Amino acid sequence: MESLIVHSGEVFEHVFVNEPVDLHIVQEEGSLVRIHVLNLPKDLKDPKDFKDPKDIHNTITVEQVGTGCRTEIYGLAFLHGDESVTTETHVHHLVGGGSSDQLIKFVLDDHAKGAFLGDLKINPNAQQVEAHQTNRNILLSDDAQMRTRPQLEIYADDVQATHGASTGQLDESALFYMQQRGIGIQKARQLLVNAFMMDVIETISDENIKTNCLTFIERD
Question: Is residue 26 included in any domain, yes or no?
């Protein structure tokens, strides 16, 4: 496990692409951590940077030990065949005045398997914390499998905390609506999946990686 301290007022931002992540971060006062974990097919613009995900397990642990910290964790996995990705997050608010957001999304096709294991903990003395954890998943195949286990442990009173998880298929009514307007079924499916992934991609600051992701999802 890689461990690092993000010192007071510092910013740590990194995008991990199709590589197992095992990371432990300690945040000091006023620091910002923004992490993206992308597990996408290799047929992107730059194949040397994007290789097929296969049996990847990502674990990210963040501890806020200073006040006024901000933590952002974004995950996006688009899996085919028998690919398998597990993303596990642990965000612990040890003191008050901090905030965290987690947005994890999976798109699973064929026999792919995904899993999200989320742990959000707010300690008794961590008052005035705002924390959100969201997991959304789309199954494109009857054989795809998704396992999700979001977990909140809140021991403080003056906090704002939410979590949510959903797994389903593409919106049939939206598909029907688009076909009624002359859009083929495959293109309609692609447009809906692209829209589903876009809010994660738009948060990427690295313009080269963002461009590669946009090239991937906008391909015909």
Answer: yes
